[in-house]
Amino acid sequence: MLLLLCVLLAWAAVTGVQLRFQADDAALSLETSRGREAKQQAEFDEVTAKLPEVQALLAQKQPEAERSAARIDELKARRKALREENAALQAAQDALTSEIEQLRAALEKGGTAP
Amino acid sequence: MTKHTGDTRRAFVCVAALAAVVLALGTWLTHSALVHKVAELNEQLAESRETWTATAAEKEALQADLAELEGELREAELTIEESTAREPSLQSDIDALQTEHDALEASVAELTATRDALQAQKDQTKTESSGS
User: How confident is the model over A65-93, as pLDDT tens digits?
Assistant: First the structure.
C-alpha cells in the first residue's frame, strides 16, 4: 500500500513538473503570438489608413498627368506640322527663285537680242 | 497492553490511509487543473495564431494594392514633372518655327508677285515682238 502510494506520488510529481513546463511554454508562446497579433494588426491599420490617402492623391494627380501628357503630345504635333509646312514653303521658295532666275534670264536675252 | 497497542496501530493505519486518499485526491485535482490549463492555453494559442496569420494575409494583400497605387502615383508625378520640364523647350521650338514660317510665307508671297510680274513682262514682250 505504502509502496503504491510512493509510486503514485513519484508519478504525480514527474507529471506535475512536465505539465507545469508545458503550461509555462504554452503561456510564453501565447504571449509571443499575442505580440505578433498586435504587430500585424498595427501594420494592417497603418496600411488601411494609408490606402485612401494614396487613392485620393492618385485621383488628383492622374488627370493632371493625363492633361500634361496630352499638352506635350499637342505641342509635339504642332512642331511636326510646322516643320513640314516650313519644308514645303522652303521648297516653294526655292522653286520660285529658280523660276524667277529663268524668267529674268529669258527677258534679258529677249531684251538684248537684235 | 497488547490490545492498546493494536488499537493504536489500527488508528495509525486508518490515519495513514486517509492521508493517502487526501494526498491522492489533491494530486489528481492539481493534475487535472494543469491539464485543463495547458489545453486552454493551447486553444488560445491556436486561435491567436489563426488571427495573426489571417491579419497578415489581409495586410499583405492591402500592401500589394498600396504598392501598385504608389507606383501609379509615382508614374503620374513623373509624367507631370517631365511635361513641366519639357513644355518650355517645345514652346520655344514652336515659336522659332512659327517665326521661320511667317518669314517663309512672306518671302513666298513676294517671290510669287515678282514671278507673276516677270511672267507678265515676258508675255508682253512676246506679244510686242510677234506684233512687229
Answer: 999 999 999 999 999 999 999 999 999 99
Kindly report, residue by residue over A15-56, the tens digit of the pLDDT.
Answer: 889 989 999 999 999 999 999 999 999 999 999 999 999 999
Would you say A87 and B101 are in contact if contact means Cβ atoms under 8 Å apart? Answer: no
For chain B, which ranges sit under pLDDT 70?
A: 1-3, 132
- Taking only residues 42 to 61 of chain B, the set having a beta carbon closer than 8 angstroms to any beta carbon of chain A reads 42, 44-45, 48-49, 51-52, 55-56, 58-59
Instruction: Give, for B21, the enclosing helix (H) or strand (E).
Output: helix B2-131
Per-residue pLDDT, A114: 44
- Indicate which of B35, B97, B99, B130 best probes the interface with A, i.e. most A CBs within 10 Å of its own CB: B97
Taking alpha carbons only, the member of B82, B76, B99, B74 closest to residue A72 is: B82
Burial classification of residue A23, based on how many CB atoms lie within 10 Å of its CB (0-12 exposed, 13-18 middle, 19 or more buried): buried
Is any Cβ of chain A less than 8 angstroms from the Cβ of B23? Answer: yes
| A13, A15, A40, B28, B51 from A23: Cα distances, Å | 15, 12, 25, 17, 21
Is B38 an 8 Å CB contact of chain A? yes
DSSP state letter for B26? H
State the distance between the two ends of chain B, measured CA to CA, in whole angstroms.
Answer: 189
Using CA atoms, how far residue B28 sits from A11, B23, B36, in Å, is 11, 8, 12
Which residues of chain B make contact with A110, given a CB cutoff of 8 A? 122, 125-126, 129
* Residue of chain B whose Cα is closest to the Cα of A15: B31
